[in-house]
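>> Question from a student workshop board

For tomorrow's exercise we were told to take the sequence and the ligand below, predict the bound structure, and bring the output to class. My setup keeps failing. Could a helper post the expected result so I can at least see what it should look like? The ligand is adenosine monophosphate.
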Amino acid sequence: MKILVPVKRVIDYNVKVRVKDDGSGVDLSNVKMATNPFDEIAVEQAVRLKETGVATEVIAVSCGTAACQDTLRRAMAMGADRGILVQTETELQPLAVAKLLHALCEMELPQLVICGKQAIDDDANQTGQMLAALADWPQATFASQVVVATASAKVTREIDGGLETLEIRLPAVITADLRLNEPRYVTLPNIMEAKRKPLDIVKPADLGVEVAPRLATINVAEPVQRGAGIKVADVAELMHRLKTEARVI
Ligand code: AMP
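>> Workshop helper replied:
Here is what the output should look like for this input. Compare the format with yours to find the bug.
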């Protein structure tokens, strides 16, 4: 069983994001980039499935600029067998990525695609779902546990009321939630070994996919600054202020 894992290069989650002065987007110059955290969880899950003999090959895919090769090498250092970079300078929106992944699925014929549940830069939470729709495959999103059999998978999902367990037939798309696993630590020997693993580069046109953005960003703004708090003398004053100033009671 082949497993395809899409990995996105995003701003490192520790970085405080700066918005460009003209409001056209987020400033990416000289900013530390990293693998989308949910995608590391997805890679970990795929690698564990290979280690337990369920999967035979794990293929990491990244769509974006040449710098995404680092993201693929990291996935390979975690245990993915090879990488595919769909290289483009064009800003990619979820539908474009889903189409690229769909085209790769038609070539590679994986039984399972494990995406992150969302990319922490656009917070779209769309790509896995769109891919499942394009491929007409079952999907199980926000997975916190995955048990794969030959032709099906049991996926536990965290939902508001508790846990929901679905059984889906393969091929399918699963999206990884935070509690699915704890990704392994990548060691220097792993990184060195990953340098020797195959990494193919293709262009969207090679896959017959048009990736031009279909949505225009009108404005990106910083969140409104929170004002300083105040100390109140007693409960009576607190109640008074909540009633008359905050108007919440
Ligand atoms: P999103 O729909 O943008 O929130 O992304 C959901 C998931 O789709 C991510 O966690 C990745 O697994 C995958 N994905 C999105 N964009 C890309 C990309 N440019 N390259 C590879 N995978 C991606």
